[in-house]
Amino acid sequence: MKKRILNLILYRLLIITTILGSALIIQFITTIFLSLKVIYSLVGVVYGLSIIYFLLYYLNVNYSFQAYLQLIIDLVIVTFLVYFSGGLISPFIFIYILPIITSSIILHKKASYIIASFSSIMFGGLVDLMYFKILPFYKPEQEFEVSFFHVLYNILVSIIAFFAVAFLSNYLAENLKRTGEKLRETQKELFRRKKLAAIGEMAVGLAHELRNPLAAISGSIQVLNSELKLKDEHKSLMEIVVKESQRLSQTMEQFLAYTFPGSYPKEKINLSEVLKETIESLKKDYKITKNCKLIVNSDDSILFSGNKEQFRQIFINLITNSLKSLPDNKGIIEINLLKKNREIEIKVKDNGRGMSEEEKERIFEPFFSRFEKGKGLGMAIVYRIIEEYGGKINISSQEGKGTEVKIILPIT
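RE: above sequence
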């Protein structure tokens, strides 16, 4: 909002300077027009007001109030300009639409209709006052005879035009906003793909270089552990080596899963069964404890053409993230797996610590983790898999109130 207020002030100065130039040009090609004195006075008023607007801007006065104040004063100035240039025959009536368009850009949707209403009242009131001779024409030569029907018709057309501009500017502003959001998403996706390309170049080499030695180390240690008579502390050290080797191997598997998600074969699978198996596995590993209340809403059979291991990864990552976000594993996790028309909806919701705006922005970045000892690949893998199936993933979260991850998958 702050930047928009500054742009409003600067653009107004640009427009009033352009109007000054236009007025000077038109002054020389028409006989009935404003005196230069009036033009200079209006321009001086706008420049003076701009100084006040700059002061309010730098004092950080409520920006919404500033916007409304500036736009309404703009309408008053336009009304004076229309009056001095002939009222109903003024060539400056079209300037009323500028504050309307501006309000739709810098304020909310209703603002443009509010400004359109003010424009209608000011213009209609001015024309009525001049028609009934309550307010005399600025110059006698500007006065002309016109029927009440003609006045009413022009006021009505102007009002319709003001509200039509409000509607169209809102429509265009919304489209512009959506286009901007899509452009930002495209830029983020391009950044992810560039990062993925760099990771991909390393992934295959790392996998071959590390996989076999890790397997050899783990296997050798297990053989030695079973054949040698070792002290308890030595056995414990060997178990740590095996455990860490397996953890590193698992990290490599996740690394490759992120880099090459399309390498998994696809078949008809029952997602409900995959979810049940995943939950049972997490319970056996003591990741889901009695302190955690797990609510599962799932159809009995949801068939989908995909890879079982990929969807197991999705469920593990989503549920594990929810578990980690619960303080001391105490809280509620709700899982929904439902078929709706030609789509499958997966929703995992918790009442944990939630996420900040920065965390939401970066949640799908590889190697970004919200948790201690996290690898930062879980949600990146989920995103890549969902993207491969042509689905959508959306995250709603508030700090201290929990997180909801919603996935929509098209059934092909």
